[in-house]
Amino acid sequence: MKIYQFLFSLFVMTFFSAASASDIDAMIGHCNDCHGNNGVSQWSDVPTIAGIDAFGHADALLMFRENERPCSESKYRQGDTSRAATTMCAVTADLSDDDIEALADAYSELPFVPAVQKFDAALAATGAAVHEMHCAKCHSDGGSNVEDEASILAGQWACYLENEFASYLSGDRVQDKKMEESLAALSAEEVKALVHYYASQQ
Ligand code: HEC
Ligand code: HEC
Question: Are the C-beta atoms of residues 117 and 199 closer than 8 Å to each other?
């Protein structure tokens, strides 16, 4: 390659990587209009997405994009709130694999902040025991260990978790066979106790 060709390709590379970094910033701004500043949600039906491991986060976005995970309609919580309500499936529909990877990486670098929320201490204690017995194998450290690549349960919003449990139990959200069996074996009371246990970790 001639030197001017080399310099030209260097210029093109620099130009495009700079442009794509600002695209990612714009996308993150869009996500944060529902998920909260720095991906920390103030709204109990929207999960905090800061700090989730990049692999698990990317996987969740791919599932939404392929309509393999149910997505509910949600309004915008901040920014231009006159925008029409939308869904995670619509939000991810036009994202490329590279966009998804960049978004997942960016959020994985941010600190997860547990939600400040009410919980019942007795139910939380029951939930802790249920968790240890049925879930800790894959969701270690009370569901806070990002190395498990299984999202973050500890300190996540209870309302969001309740919705996800309902979605798993109805069969709308498909799950790994082993987790499906663990969940199916639980009573409604035990599932409720789990939600209080995750909410209690603040
Ligand atoms: C209009 C509001 C809205 C926008 C915009 C939005 N989300 Fe969501 N997101 C939600 C809601 C609500 C859920 C909960 C699942 C559901 O109800 O569909 C969710 C769920 C998720 C989850 C699942 C979390 C988990 O632990 O499994 C991830 C990851 C996520 N969103 C990432 C993003 C990213 C990245 C963007 C920007 C590209 C984004 N969201 C934009 C509302 C939104
Ligand atoms: C065999 C391993 C395994 C077991 C056992 C397991 N899980 Fe999971 N769980 C996963 C993986 C992996 C994910 C993330 C991938 C996905 O969403 O499909 C996940 C995701 C979840 C999510 C969704 C988090 C989110 O925000 O999207 C919830 C809630 C959950 N698990 C709860 C539980 C509970 C409660 C138990 C015990 C009754 C349990 N899991 C048992 C592996 C497991």
Answer: yes
